[in-house]
Amino acid sequence: MPWQRLCFQACCIDQIKLVRDMKNNLIPISCALACSFLWGTTFVAQDTGMDFIGPYTFCAVRLFLGFLGLLPFFIYFELNEIKKINFNLRKVFFFTLILGSIFGMANILQQVSLLYTDIANSAVFTVLYVVIVPLISYFIFSIKIHPSIWPSVTLCLIGGLLLSEIKNYDVRFGDMLVIIGAFFWAFHIIFIYKVLKIFNFPIAIATFQCLVAGIFCSFPALTFETVTINLISKEITELLYAGILSSGVAFMLQAYAQRVLSPASVAIIFSLEGVFASIFGWILLDQFLSEIKVFGIMIILLAVIFSQLIPIYGKKNYGRI
Question: Is the pTM of this model over 0.85?
């Protein structure tokens, strides 16, 4: 029958589009997952890297290392392409200053928080940007988001509460710093999305946001802390990991991921950093994961899978997978 043939053809077309969309988004999703892993494992380096230097110095040095690590990639892959394009240099410079300042403040709040709270709490409360990003995207920037984001956000919030132990209602000073920092991370994710629309060079963005943020963090470091080469060298292993991999490579991966994925959906993938931080805090620093925390990890994983599979058919309407 003709109508059966038409239905069959329509079904085949849908399946082909589904496979194509999944294939096209495999790389950005992989970038976001790798980014989450690097961010999560860096919490261990951040926690153990302040035996001889203060939090501001740690932030400044790691960000400068991130800049130096990315600079060769920027020169090799993007510098010549940028020279060929006529764009508003003043506008890009202004946006980079804003992006780098937000990035620097987020780093400072997260690093200082580790003086007062443990890795799991710091990572979990940082993940609150998963809740904040869609709210800011929708209510302030009028960015359309797929309806599946809301149950995914709810699941992430529940998983985060389980990871932080529901029975503990005492919000410590460190936890408050992380919660404030989560707003800066949320704006950072959204602002990268905006900058990529006018300047689609992710390596350049990642490189120079590290430079601006490093300069931003240098002011409190030089004002309130003792900064010497000798003290910095004693934390060189942690600084190299946090600088080259987390501040450099990870944020380059973030920019690549956000070329395709929307702020709300990519934030949910990034929430896995809380999972990775909790696991590696348990393995390397003996910060025990109870059954309820393991359950929280499973809930967050479910939210990530749900947020990435359900909206595939709404790509055209919502600008994402």
Answer: no
**Domain span at residue 116?**
40-310
If one compares 252 and 54, the residue with the highest pLDDT of the two is 54
**pLDDT tops 80 at residue 10:** no
Rounded Cα–Cα distance for residues 47 and 44 (Å): 5
Task: Please say whether the beta carbons of 207 and 74 come within 8 A.
Answer: yes
* Contact predicate 265/146, CB 8 Å: yes
For 44-76, what is each residue's pLDDT tens digit? Answer: 999 999 999 999 999 999 999 999 999 998 998
Number of domains in the chain: 1
Residue 319 inside a domain? The answer is no
Sign of CA dihedral 71, 74, 76, 82: negative
Which amino acid makes up residue 187? F
Tokens standing for 63? 């960000």
Residue 132 lies in a domain: yes
